[in-house]
Amino acid sequence: MVHTGTKMRLSRILSAVTVPSGVALLAVTWIYIRTGPAFGGIIWYLCALAFLVLIPVLPYLIPRMNRAGRAPARDTERRTAIIVGVLSYAAGTAVSWAFDAPLTARTIFTAYFLSGLVLSAVNALFRFKASGHACGVTGPATLLAYYVGLRAALVAASALPLVFWSRLTLRRHTLSQLLAGSVIGICSTLTVLVVL
After folding, report:
1. CA 173 to CA 185: how far, in whole Å?
2. Eight-state DSSP code of residue 173
3. pTM above 0.85, yes or no
4. Rounded to whole angstroms, what are the CA distances from 10 to 22, 121, 122, 180, 183?
5. DSSP assignment letter at 2
6. SS3 of 171, please?
7. Using CA atoms, how far apart are residues 57 and 144, in angstroms rounded to an integer?
8. What CA–CA distance (Å, rounded) separates 144 from 83?
9. How far apart, in whole angstroms, are the C-alpha atoms of residue 151 and residue 145?
10. What is the pLDDT of residues 43-93, one digit of tens each?
11. I need a surface site. Which of 92, 122, 135, 192 has the fewest CB within 10 A?
């Protein structure tokens, strides 16, 4: 039997490792490596890293760099991260369309934006806390299935049970919130893949 303190530490580590920005880094890099020129080259890859990875993770990093200040409350940090993430996804989507990025890059940006927008709308309108972590695994897994193949999607999706376990152990989400986040990630991404 795992000691409660060890279980909580492991849950926190898994929660940090499976943050949507981390999964985005892996998915975008894998798609870039596999699709090559269809992604649009290094410039669009770097844009993807900026808008899907770096900017969305700043609300978690900046308070921790300010050692003199207190870390924000968990709910405040979560809300800020969602707002910054959706705004960053929107900016990436706008840039990709305004500068006529290749379809692969535009699709990825648009899928992230729609997933973030739907997740935010569900949470705001229904006062529900659908899981961004779960959405951040299933959306990229859906993109990987389309651009790289089923095996890549299964590798990404293998993180989902870890997300469920860690978020339930930390009592950050209920099972229904995790399932809702998972469905939002899949459905939003599939919608973009079908429309574009």
Report:
1. 16
2. -
3. yes
4. 17, 31, 29, 24, 26
5. -
6. coil
7. 21
8. 25
9. 7
10. 999 999 999 999 999 987 776 666 555 555 667 778 888 899 999 999 999
11. 122
